[in-house]
TrEMBL record, chains A, B:
Classification of source organism: Bacteria, Pseudomonadati, Bacteroidota, Flavobacteriia, Flavobacteriales
Known DNA-binding region: 31-50
GO molecular function, one term: DNA binding
Protein name: TetR family transcriptional regulator
Domain HTH tetR-type: from-to ranges: 8-68
Domain of life, source organism: Bacteria
Length: 204, 204
DNA sequence: AAAAAAACCGACCAAGTGGTCGGTCAGCTA
DNA sequence: TAGCTGACCGACCACTTGGTCGGTTTTTTT
């Protein structure tokens, strides 16, 4: 375990810098040398730790992206009693984090799903799986909210989950081009409006 | 005008195929040769008509993407009397088109904004401008709806516009990975729910 | 039909790309 | 001290990329 320390440290440095650059410039538009240059490491070091560029990115997904999505978007909702309130707070917190840290990696997921779609099936699958877990978690929480009396029984949980995910992916996409504060404020305002409309008896 | 016919035809063939491949595989991940091969044309033909790969893409934006966004998302809303109804119908129609034509280019905008962000400022600007026109148009239409009595006066037009755009961008992003029919059905259902909640007196 | 202009061809180039591989070297063990 | 091993180096390779350019073919003009 101790002797693995250096190994782990180097691998993690590469992964962190790799995610940063892949996120900033795109996977296909970032060369391994770009990453290595910033770390003052060599090609040899890279291929000593990782089999290929693809293998490298998969390790980034598993070690960084998955964990971030879980901690930012899945766990904050999981345990809460009132799903609609929990979702509101979760989104609020996630956007606030995104607003202040330029590279919080809170929702790189969207960008990468986009970039790899139709280009690399294996990576796409890994990314899609994360998204699916999020979706299932939302649906499950909403359903549980029904039995607990927080959510109207007629609510279409899957529809609401899909809509919430859509809007969140969309706003994160818009936020990359600045004016984040205003955007996220507007977004949360309307999300509240939407969530509240779900809580009352169906309109029409 | 007549003498330009062949020129126009060839340029358009290149642009159409270019958009198809750029959309499918990404701009940076598609070579000019990829496009030329499918058209049985040569490098010389390409550089006879376009100055560079970048110039080529800008011409695609101006000739294909702008027009599509206008005809699919801007014009259908512009003239209508009741904005909320117009938006609903517009989204419905846009998603239905997207659902059936795999490459309708209805909202490539999202993908490309994503890909070029932070990588090519000039192209980003062109794309952002299209998005801005859409946004302004939504806001204006909503405001006009207030004076016409279709929209409550307290409505935050800019917030609603941002939210609608977010959700639309998000759903189009999710739809690339299949299961479109189900997704777009859910999305429209929830969009209606949201729009209806706007029409009535503010909740809380 | 001849000349001029427009459209197109494809070999070529410099600059990268992902990936390989023989080698170096610090630190541990015996 | 000698040997071994994990971590790293960097020259090198085959290949792709955007872009150039001298030349050929097709179309239009005269």
């Amino acid at each position: 375990m101790d002797k693995n320390l250096k190994r782990m440290a180097t691998m993690h440095r590469m992964q962190a810098k790799g995610l940063e650059l892949f996120y900033k410039k795109g996977f296909y538009n970032t060369s391994i040398d770009d990453i290595l240059k910033e770390l003052s490491l060599s090609k040899g070091a890279f291929y000593y730790h990782f089999q290929s560029k693809e293998d490298f990115f998969i390790s980034i997904i598993q070690n960084l992206i998955v964990r971030k999505v879980y901690s930012m978007l899945i766990e904050p909702i999981e345990g809460e009693s009132d799903p609609l309130v929990a979702i509101e707070h979760c989104f609020e917190n996630a956007l606030s984090t995104a607003e202040h840290n330029e590279f919080d990696y809170g929702f790189v997921l969207g960008n990468f799903i986009n970039e790899f779609n139709g280009r690399n099936d294996e990576i796409s699958k890994y990314l899609r799986d994360i998204y699916k877990v999020w979706e299932v978690n939302l649906v499950t929480t909403l359903q549980k909210g029904k039995t607990d009396g927080f959510v109207p029984r007629h609510l279409d949980s899957e529809g609401v989950a899909a809509y919430l995910i859509s809007s969140y992916m969309g706003i994160r996409m818009l936020m990359v081009e600045g004016n984040n504060k205003n955007l996220s404020y507007h977004f949360m305002q309307q999300t509240r409006q939407y969530l509240k409309s779900l809580a009352v008896t169906r309109l029409v």
